[in-house]
Design goal:
The protein is mainly α. It has one domain. Strand 1 and strand 2 form a beta hairpin. Helix 1 packs across helix 2 and helix 1 crosses helix 7.
Length: 176
């Protein structure tokens, strides 16, 4: 997720400056509240998928891991923990605790070392619904498809430049 794009979208919704929207959005606080449980969950998903490719992980989505609070839906860390443990137990039943734990620890370390650990979390089925709930808690309901399109149009795509260059190189046959 891109804080700048989210601030831009919120500023349009509220008719305020992007700086005011950034303060209202409180993006760092929001990401801090979801980052650790989600990267632990996705490390468990990756681990279980490595040993059980047919296991349902990301497809189950985030909604079943949310609870309703007075301000709106939020991620329930206890439900995330249950889903994480379920994925790890499934792996342990196939390869044992030692292989599961070592794979999980390796994946979790890789996620923690990303520029933004949330890059390792599904945007479509986890982050986008959660940010939509956060925006709704601020008084604005934006359909997810519309939110996705608005974020894409306002987002900073430079982090994908090297990927684009690599794909163009492969298309030209540079990397064969």
């Amino acid at each position: 997720m891109c804080e700048k794009a989210l601030s831009f979208v919120l500023s349009q919704e509220e008719g305020i400056t992007e700086d005011q929207a950034k303060l209202r959005l409180n993006y760092n606080n929001w990401t801090n509240s979801v980052e650790q449980p989600l990267i632990e969950l996705f490390a468990a998903f990756a681990t279980s998928h490595k040993f059980i490719p047919s296991i349902s992980t990301v497809a189950q989505g985030v909604e079943m891991m949310c609870i309703q609070q007075p301000t709106g839906k939020v991620l329930d860390k206890a439900k995330v923990e249950v889903a994480k443990n379920r994925a790890l137990i499934a792996s342990e039943s196939i390869v044992g605790v030692e292989d599961t734990d070592s794979t999980y620890d390796e994946v979790l370390d890789r996620l923690k070392n990303l520029t933004s650990p949330l890059y390792g979390v599904s945007g479509k089925t986890f982050l986008l619904p959660l940010i939509a709930h956060h925006i709704k808690s601020l008084g604005h309901q934006i359909k997810q498809k519309a939110l996705r399109m608005r974020l894409v149009s306002a987002g900073n795509m430079t982090r994908f430049d090297s990927l684009g260059n690599a794909l163009r190189g492969v298309a030209r046959g540079d990397h064969l």
